[in-house]
Amino acid sequence: MDPAALIPEALPIPVAWGWFYAFLLLTFILHLLVMNIMLGSSIIALIHHLRGKTETEPLTHDIALKLPFTIAFAVNFGVAPLLFLQVLYGQFLYTSSVLMAVYWLAVIGLVIMAYLSAYIYDFKYASLGTLKAVLLLIVTLCLLATAFIYTNNMTLMLNPQVWTGYFDNPGGTLLNLSDPTLIPRYLHFVVASMAVAGLFIALIWSHKANRGETGAQRWVRHGMTWFAYASIAQIAVGLWFLVALPQPILLLFMGGSNLHTTVLLVGVSLAVLTVITAMRHKVYLTAGLLTATVSVMVFQRDLVRDAYLSPYFDVSARAVTGEFLPLILFVVTLAAGLVVVAWMLKLAAEAGKEAQS
Question: Where do the domains of the chain lie, and which CATH numbers do they carry?
């Protein structure tokens, strides 16, 4: 069967595709940063609990205080890019989601379980004892499982030729396990999360050090060490991911396309620079370079997706209806939402200061 026959027709969109594309990139960058902090900090704290050293209590307790917030922000910041992805590539994403519907719907339960466990880990931290590791293990496993399901869906949507597996497995449990990019793509996110979380730890404790908190500088160095070594591993996994791509797509990044090759070189160069600055414990410079690196990598990820779908679909050729009101309402709502989030963060910070005083 011709896989193209399985692809639903693309519906018209209200405004030019570039608007949705820009918002997709912007909102996904925000989601990716928060999501990495969420997953990576839970992994780092779990490792420290399993090692059983009480001297790391200041670090793990600080992570416990922030983990419920990061889960909430990761979930909420993930809604917008998912919606923009559905607008631009809905005929692919909806189909892949139906093919693996059992796992896709299980994400709701996994996130709720992670959220509940994180709250108990936070509010009962002082009395949990050895149960801290158990609760954090539940959080981490739920988040890792969610990431694996998402990785499956994001790769399944790119491979319509795999969709014919539905006729052998119509029960909504089709996974893209035969894809050679699945594991390196998944690890690319997991390893990156530990790097970003390490930098987040360094930023938090750097702020505490600036306020004169005793012993804070130790955790700044600790966070930067996590970032540096996880970033080195991330570069290695990224190369694995690159060479696992289908040859026509790989060649685009190996000189076959000026745009693709330039984006790859810029991304790798920025990644190397972040490792160098991290080794020198330049916290804020590393944070700026990381933001630039993530932005370039997100764009590169989008180039990979369009290359995969090019035999079937060109997003720039979408039909447009010319209805601007929904876009205007979204921009106004987004601006208002950002103001509210900033206000909530300010209240939370003030409440934290009052609790410490």
Answer: 12-320 (1.20.1630.10)
